[in-house]
Each structure stands twice: as C-alpha cells, then as structure tokens.
C-alpha cells in the first residue's frame, strides 16, 4: 500500500480528490494519506472535514494534516501537487491587469499565465526539494498551473527529479468525446495528440478495435464544439464561462479541420473576442471565489459541524481519475497510455528537442516512455515555436532575474498586441507581484 501526500491541502479540489482516491483503494491501496499546505488557516477548513470523511470511509488509513514539510514529506511514495501560489486573489490580478489594456486576462495564457508562472516556479521547486530531502525515492505528480511554465522550470532546474507533469484539460475533453461517441468511458479510446500544455491538437481517435472515430467527432464538433447540449444535457450547463469555451471550440476547429483542438487555443486565435467577452470588474477568479470556493468550504464546515459526512454532496472527483491511473502506472508498472508533459527529445521530429511537449506516453515504474508523433504541419509548428519561446523566456527571466527577457516574453505572446502594451502590463504585474516574484 502507498503513502501519499497532497500538497496544496487547502485547495478546493482536495476533498473530491480524496473521495476519488478512497473509491479506488481496491486497485490502489493506501496506507497513509497526508495533506500539506503552507497556509494553516485555509488548510484547516478542508483538513477537519477530511478527517471525518476518512474516519467514516477508511478508518484504517493513517491520516495527517500538517504545515510542517518534514512531517509532510517523510515516508511518502507519492506527492500529488496542486498548489496555487498567491491564491485566487492573485489569479484575480492575473486576469484584471491585462484587461485594463484590453488584453485577455487568463490564468494560464498570455500575460496572466506568465505572471502566474513567475509566482509558481519557486513554490513547485520547493516541493521537489522537500520530496528529495525527506523521501528520495518518491514520485511527484504535478498538476499545479501554469503547467507549461512549471514543467519547463523543472526540466531546466531539477532535470533529474522524479516529477511527472500532467494536465486535466485533455482528460476532460476526451470524456466529452466519449459521450459524443456514445462510449462508456474515455478509456474506450486510444488517441494521438501533440502540442504544448493548453496548446495542442488531437490527430487520431480510435476505439479498442482500431476503428477510426474521427469522422463522427468532426461531424459533431463542427456543429457544436465540445458542448454536449445537443445530446440533451451538459454537466457544465450552469457554468456560462465553460459553456462559452466548449461552444467556441467549433470556430477553433474550423482553422484546421484535420485535427481536433484543445479549447485553450481560443485565447490565441480569438483574443479580442475573449477580451470583449470578459467583465473587467468581475472575472473568472471572482466567479470561482463566489462559486466553487464558497460551496466547497461551506460543505467542509457543515461536515465539521455535523461531525459526519454521510449525507455530503461532495461527489467523487471522477475527472481526476487520471491521478489514480498515473499513480497506479508508476506503483504497479501498468504501462498505461497517458498524455503527459515531457521533454520532446525527438518525439515531434521537426520540433525543438528541449521543448516540454504534451504527447502520449506509456507509463510504467521507470516513468514515461514518450510515443513518437512524427512531423507536424507548418501551421502548428509555427504557433508552437512562438509559444514555446514565451515559456522558455519566462523561465530564463526567473533564473536570471531579467526584466528584458520577461518583457520579451510578454511581447512574444500571441495574445499581446504590441511591445508597448507588453511593457505597461509587465510594469503593473511587477507591482502587483512584489511579494512573489524575484526582484528583476
Ligand atoms: C481546466 C484546466 C486547468 C484550469 C481549470 C480552470 O481544468 O485544465 O488548468 O486550472 O480548467 O478552471 P476554473 O473553473 O478554475 O476556471
């Protein structure tokens, strides 16, 4: 049985991830579960509820909530990292500062993603170092954002660390594809996909008999994007921001009907529309603070007050099942095929070997073995070259404390209209991130 620590214990995602782990103990037995955060007050809300959940559902699992790195990282097999440096308050800044200049504000794309990257690098490296100090044989599964920049930073600065970078967006979209196709699960499909994180394309989707499912998907997506409304209901129908994104994928698809796009590409192809569609005084961060955060923390406090979780409305974070799959693949050498963010190293033949790319890998006890994707077309290659330059410049700027390189990163982002606006946004971001960024 495994010992697991979840870093970012105070995350709104923690309770549902724990329920998902508990639901899978038949194939992934757990001996110890710890949650760790550097924010004691925030973690306590979640920790108290988790204690009750575990007592009721899995009394044999040893449990600890701590803010002490040594306690947290000693005797663990896996570190599941989903930290948010600066919390939603800083996400709000990432979104609102660019919007002041008419530029889309988004937590992982464009200026917002760069600012968030500059905050996250140090936090994620700190976790890697704790893991290596206290449990040198452990693996870190990292899904902290912005995943692309964080992954590049770990490649550059901790090249030998046992860290796997993974994102839930392709998983979520593949679950939608399975529904469109009338399949039970995304696991009934084998996919080919390439790109950078939040910047990729599916080139092939097949069932387990090898039948090509792309024609049916294309027919549906060309009409509806990834919205499931045409099938009756959509699980996100009460979330207008996500519904807009899923519908908009139809327009992104039209740019290259040979492939199926990741939804995040909308920010790069339709940045003006995305900016106009935003309310500069009430962004996604505000929606999440008033929605998910209130709901999750409210439910945690209710569980703690009632001293039982028997009637909880927390459900198993099923879309997070990829975390179980990945853990199991490493722990039991399952050779599961999964999309991970790994050094390219020739997998995309005509693309920079040191780029961190998102591609299918076979995962076993020794880590991921990436699958070759061959040559990619000029359209995607050109876009990816520009975006990977942004991501690498951010990491170089962080290492060298270079204003110049960070300005270049902002100016090189496809989302930013010109170098003057890039500089204005950068200067505001420096002010807002004083507590978090290295001094440039
Ligand atoms: C998807 C992305 C994540 C991102 C999240 C934001 O799951 O893959 O990288 O953090 O969406 O969702 P939210 O509801 O917080 O806007």
In short:
By secondary structure, this protein is an alpha/beta fold.
Care to describe what's here?
This protein is 49% helix and 16% strand. It has helices spanning 14-23, 40-57, 69-73, 87-100, 110-134, 147-157, 169-181, 214-224, 240-255, 266-269, 271-276, 284-306, 321-332, 378-400, 403-412, 419-432; strands at residues 2-7, 30-36, 62-66, 78-81, 139-142, 163-165, 189-196, 199-207, 260-261, 336-343, 356-364, 367-370. The model has no long low-confidence stretch (mean pLDDT 97). 6-O-phosphono-alpha-D-glucopyranose is lined by residues 108, 145, 167-169, 284, 288. 6-O-phosphono-alpha-D-glucopyranose (G6P) binds next to α12.
Provide the β-strand percentage band: 15-25%
Give the distance, in angstroms, between the N- and C-terminal Cα atoms: 46 Å
**Discrete helix count:** 16
> Which ligands, by name, code or SMILES, are bound?
6-O-phosphono-alpha-D-glucopyranose
* Rg computed from alpha carbons, rounded to a whole number of angstroms: 21 Å
> N-to-C SSE series?
EHEHEHEHHEHEHEEHHEHHHHEEEHHH
Helix and strand composition category: alpha/beta
Average pLDDT rating: 97
Question: What's the total number of strands?
Answer: 12
**Low-confidence runs of at least 5 consecutive residues:** none
Helix content: 40-55%
What's the overall geometry?
A: globular
Widest sheet: strand ordering: 3-2-1-4-5-6
Strand count, sense and barrel status of the largest sheet are:
6 strands, parallel
């Amino acid at each position: 049985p495994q010992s697991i620590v979840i870093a970012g214990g105070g995350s709104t995602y923690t309770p549902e991830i724990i329920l998902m782990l508990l639901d899978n103990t038949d194939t992934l037995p757990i001996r110890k579960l710890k949650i760790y955060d550097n924010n004691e007050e925030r973690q306590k809300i979640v920790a108290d509820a988790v204690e009750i959940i575990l007592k009721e559902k899995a009394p044999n699992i040893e449990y600890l909530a701590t803010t002490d790195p040594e306690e947290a990282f000693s005797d663990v097999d896996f570190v599941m990292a989903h930290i948010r440096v600066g919390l939603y308050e800083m996400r709000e800044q990432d979104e609102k500062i660019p919007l002041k200049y008419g530029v889309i504000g988004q937590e992982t794309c464009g200026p917002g993603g760069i600012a968030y990257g500059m905050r996250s690098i140090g936090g994620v490296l700190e976790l890697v170092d704790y893991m290596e100090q206290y449990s040198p044989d452990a693996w870190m599964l990292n899904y902290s954002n912005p995943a692309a920049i964080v992954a590049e930073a770990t490649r550059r600065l901790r090249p030998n660390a046992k860290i796997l970078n993974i994102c839930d967006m392709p998983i979520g979209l593949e679950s939608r594809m399975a529904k469109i196709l009338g399949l039970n699960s995304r696991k009934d499909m084998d996919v080919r996909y390439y790109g950078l994180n939040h910047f990729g394309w599916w080139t092939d989707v097949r069932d387990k008999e090898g039948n090509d499912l792309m024609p049916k998907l294309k027919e549906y997506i060309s009409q509806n994007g990834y919205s499931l409304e045409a099938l009756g209901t959509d699980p996100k129908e009460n979330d207008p921001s996500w519904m807009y994104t899923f519908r908009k994928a139809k327009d992104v698809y039209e740019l290259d009907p040979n492939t199926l796009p990741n939804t995040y590409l909308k920010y790069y192809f339709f940045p003006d529309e995305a900016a106009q569609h935003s309310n500069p005084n009430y962004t996604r961060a505000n929606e999440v603070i008033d929605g998910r955060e209130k709901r999750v923390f409210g439910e945690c406090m209710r569980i703690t007050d009632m001293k039982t979780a028997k009637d909880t409305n927390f459900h198993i974070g099923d879309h997070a099942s990829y975390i179980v799959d990945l853990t199991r693949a490493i722990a039991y050498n399952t050779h599961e095929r999964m999309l991970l963010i790994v050094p390219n190293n020739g997998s995309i033949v005509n693309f920079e070997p040191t780029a961190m790319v998102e591609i299918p890998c076979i995962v076993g006890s020794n880590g991921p073995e990436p699958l070759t994707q061959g040559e990619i077309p000029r359209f995607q290659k050109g876009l990816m070259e520009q975006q990977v330059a942004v991501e690498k410049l951010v990491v170089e700027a962080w290492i060298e404390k270079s204003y110049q390189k960070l300005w270049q990163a902002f100016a090189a982002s496809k989302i930013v209209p010109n170098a003057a606006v890039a500089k204005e946004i950068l200067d505001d971001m420096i002010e807002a991130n004083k507590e978090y960024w290295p001094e440039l």
